Amino acid sequence: MISRGLALRVARHRRLLATACAAIGAGSALLALRPSGPPTREVLTAARDLPSGTALTRSDVQRRTLPTSVVPAGTLDDATGRTLAGPVRRGEPLTDARVVDGNLLRGLPDGTVAAPVRITDADAARLVRPGDRVDILAVPTAPTADDSDLGPPPDTRADLPRALPGVPSRARLVVTSVPVIAVPRPEPDTTSPQGALIVIATDRAQATTIAAAGPHLSITINDTG
Q: Which stretches within the chain are classed as H helix?
């Protein structure tokens, strides 16, 4: 039962109470009518700027919530152990197009083969990343003293000096502008032959030409992906 004093106080302030109730009701209506935020989705992104060829670890990635409208197709649920095919900026969503696929030749024309090529200069090979296009050159060894009676090579002009024993002759272009599809990293604490491997995509005829070019191969990078 409401006391007489409380009833009098309510009666004196009923206008104020009515105004407050009306304001609360209007605010609730506005909140109900206000459109909700855009739909979002949690995606895997780069935790920092990452160079091409990075073998991703857990510390290289992080999850972020982004509006669904800006999430690209092909986002990855797990990228640990995958290798980046190109550089990635911090915060960029990681997609299947950003990593080297398990099938190196997927998406390439029929008849393409993956050709491992050992580059003599390992430091030069480490500059290459998947997606680069390179020229491959053969650096033949110069004739030795035992070869002096064989005469000059067929394409040597008389006005050019002969190569001296022990001095490499001019490099020869073997194939040009072939895409690099993988750069295998040597296992730690293992002994490997001189040089370093890269894997290129080429046709069978070019692969045969490279195989016959000799053991001393060099590269120049003429385009990057």
A: 4-12, 14-33, 122-125, 204-211
Cα 104 to Cα 113, 158, 181, distances in angstroms? 9, 47, 7
- Residue 131: both structure tokens together: 């997606």
- Please state, in angstroms and rounded to a whole number, the distance separating the CA atoms of residues 179 and 199: 9
Q: Which CATH number fits domain 40-98: 3.90.1210.10, 3.40.50.1260, 2.30.42.10, 1.10.357.30?
A: 3.90.1210.10
Provide the whole-model pTM.
0.48
pLDDT digits 0-9 by tens, 168-194: 567 889 999 999 888 876 655 444 557
Work out whether the CA dihedral 17, 23, 26, 27 comes out positive or negative: negative
The CA radius of gyration of the chain, in Å to the nearest whole number, is: 34
Tokens of 7: 């009833």
Give the pair of three-digit tokens for residue 117: 């090529």
